[in-house]
Structure formats: C-alpha cells, structure tokens
Amino acid sequence: xxxxxxxxxxxxxxxxxxxxxxxxxxxxxxxxxxxxxxxxxxxxxxxxxxxxxxxxxxxxxxxxxxxxxxxxxxxxxxxxxxxxxxxxxxxxxxxxxxxxxxxxxxxxxxxxxxxxxxxxxxxxxxxxxxxxxxxxxxxxxxxxxxxxxxxxxxxxxxxxxxxxxxxxxxxxxxxxxxxxxxxxxxxxxxxxxxxxxxxxxxxxxxxxxxxxxxxxxxxxxxxxxxxxxxxxxxxxxxxxxxxxxxxxxxxxxxxxxxxxxxxxxxxxxxxxxxxxxxxxxxxxxxxxxxxxxxxxxxx
Amino acid sequence: xxxxxxxxxxxxxxxxxxxxxxxxxxxxxxxxxxxxxxxxxxxxxxxxxxxxxxxxxxxxxxxxxxxxxxxxxxxxxxxxxxxxxxxxxxxxxxxxxxxxxxxxxxxxxxxxxxxxxxxxxxxxxxxxxxxxxxxxxxxxxxxxxxxxxxxxxxxxxxxxxxxxxxxxxxxxxxxxxxxxxxxxxxxxxxxxxxxxxxxxxxxxxxxxxxxxxxxxxxxxxxxxxxxxxx
Lengths: 299, 230
Hints:
Chain A is built from 7 helices and 16 strands. Chain A is an alpha+beta fold.
C-alpha cells in the first residue's frame, strides 16, 4: 500500500501557497505510507541555459559548503544558486548535464543526483510524511503543480533512494501506488538499450521505461499506451511534467484514486480523506478515474 | 423521531461506531446524523438495530459494512466495499461507489444513485443491488443469489462464473463472463425487477427496457469432454 497525491493550482494567486494546501494531503496519506515520503514541485523556471540539480546524501554531517566550493574550483564555473535544506540541496548551474554528473560521480560518489530540470525540485526521505515535510519545509513550497507520495515498502528496501518520486530525463517524474510483477524483465530489456538503474525498485523500471519511450519519440499518451502493454501488475501512476499532471490506473483498478476538479485547482489523491480540507471542495467535481484511461491536466 | 447529531471533526469515529453498536432497545427508531465524514473508513459498520443513519458527505472504505436491519444513507460518494456482507436493511449511496460495492452481501437492499466501480456485487449471496449509473468490469463475479439492477452499462466480464443471481441491465454490456448468458424474462423475474425499481426511486423506468442475464449452468458439473481445458 502507498499513498499518492497531486495538486495543480489553476488560480495564480494560490500558487504561493501550494505547499500549505498540499501538506494535509500528504499527511492524510500517512496510514497508507508511513515509512517514507517525497514530492516533486514545479516552480519558476531557471534561465534558458541553466539547469537545477537536486542532490541528496545520507551523511548527516555532510559539508555542502565544501561541495559548492569544490564545484567552483574544479569546474571553474560559478554556481548560480545553491539552496540547501537538511541533507538535500538544489544546485543551479549553466554547465552541461553530463559534466555535472561526471564530476559528482568522481568527487562526491556519496551524493545522489535525484533530479535534473529547469522547474522541478525533488525532496524524498525516510520517515513519516509529517517528519519529512517538516525536515524540508514543504509548507513553504511555491509552484504551479506538484506530485507527492507516501510509501509503505513491499518489494524493496526503505531508503531515501527507494522513496518516490522517481525521475528520468529532465522535468519529469512519477509516483506509483502498486507493485509490478515484471519489473526485473523490464529492467533487463531497458539495460539492453543502455539504460542504467540506481535502485532495485520496481517503480524505477516503469519510470525509465516511460522516459525511454518518450525519448524514442512517443508523446506521453503513446508512451502510456506502450506502458499498458508492457507493465504487468497493479498500478496507479501519477506523473508530473513541466506543464502537466497525468494519471493512469491499471485495467483492474486494483489501486485507488480520487480526483477533485475545481475552478481554482485539480487535486488527486489515493483517497478522499486527503482532499476533504481543500478550499471550497464542496463545489468541486469529485470522481473516480476509470481504469486504463489517461487523464491529463494542463497548467 | 428522536435525532442525534455527531460531527467527526470533533468526535472520534470509534465513539460514534460504539454508540451505534449500543443495545437495539436504545437505538430502535432513532435517527443519527453524521457530519464531516471527510472520507473516513468504516463509518456505521456492523449496525443491527432499527435506526436510520445519514452521513452528510463522502465516506471512505467499508461504509455501512455488515449492515443488519438499519437504514443508512450516504449523501456523498463511498470508497471500496460499501455494504459489503450486508445481511439485511438498506444502504443508499447518493453519489458514486468505488470497487466491490455490496460484495458478498447476503440480504437487504443497496441503492447507488451514481456509478459503481469494478467488481460490484462480487460473490453476491442474496442481497439486492440497484445501480442508477453504470458498473465497472467483473461485476457479479461468482454471484450466487440475489438480484442486481443496472440502469446504465456494464463493463467487461459481467457475471463471470455466475450461479443463480439475476442481473437486469438496461444499457450495454461490454462483455459477458464465462457461463453468463441472456435469459428470457419471466413473470416472476419481471415482478422482482418492478419491485426493485420502485423501492430504489426508479419507478418511472420501464422494466421492458432491461435485459436479464443469468447462468447457463454449464460450469455446475465436471464435463469430461472438456477435461483437457480444466
């Protein structure tokens, strides 16, 4: 069991409060996922030639200042912005993605690269949703849309890296409630395509599969149609891209989802419990998404 | 009728449910209103008195599960397993119901005004279910006894491996499950349908617009000619 939440704020005035609106959604899913939590938030874009790198380390006393200093010394490049919260940091630079990746691997192998993008920041860690939210000031987040997850691990270890969201490529992430029975064979297939994995988690296989399909030219819809053919198991998947949220449920609707569409927002959660607090929810259109259908909401 | 109000924002659900499990002599004829359910699970489960309960809002999983005698109305939608294993009484959902509505119910009447999700009436054991909207796939799977009235459409595999339940469907059926077939609606079947339409607030709907589905009974006995397929 796991919990998923998603929130897309249509009313620009409410975007400064997306964190505050979302927090009870995430905490509402604690019973479904008490061991880890995470979220990806899409905020203001950095400059056209810049990228944000979301970093994480499990070392509590990690010297982030030294990393920032070494980055400048080794690469001769100014860090445009460096925002650190607990053991996460978001580093903004105009350097090429591969340059940063290679440098990190060489000098800071203990630092995990969670995500790359121009709008997306990712935070994920072990602990109850309330603990993780407090650690990373989720209530202060601003942005247009986000996806969140609360995890009850069933098939792989409880570590920050195994927590959701999972990402691949840039400004693209996925959270998953369910379990995939063919994740190992899917991984082998993708490894033949030269795709490497960071964990043994089943969701990572789905995430890299969909991202690979989109790199091969599929749009999100076509990639998900391929997903229905390839993914075997139970899933409700919620995805975030730079300007949309997308939701699908497996053909047997084994895992739940409820949607509330309001003039000011679209909110998605595993259960209504996480939507009940939202402003003016009584006037929202609340419905259960059908299995094997794709739902997309644009910012 | 004496009426009692509970607000789940300031009263723990367990306290409300414990009150609803009081001796029937205390509850018979009482009306209990529950405000701000906010999707909580297990609201009004296991009732066994002549009480009426109204839940003002959306309820979570297993709302009014295992109901006996009582009359429970949910003004909003419900999560999975509403009225599951109901024995008697009446449960009315004014919104939509998620998966496995009325699963294994033995008796009583479940009325859903909106759509029901997948596996509605799975393993039905004698209750009646009326759905104003459509039902999802695999509904009435292994339904043994009782009646389902579906005013909208049915998804895939309706009535798979069905025993003796009756399925009245007004709309389209995407596909029938194994051993489920169209039946001729006899006078007795029609009487049951008319009665259920009346009791669920659909007396304006013509019984002639329904098709009856039931068991072809080919799976009841071992068939040696098909032993290779087992």
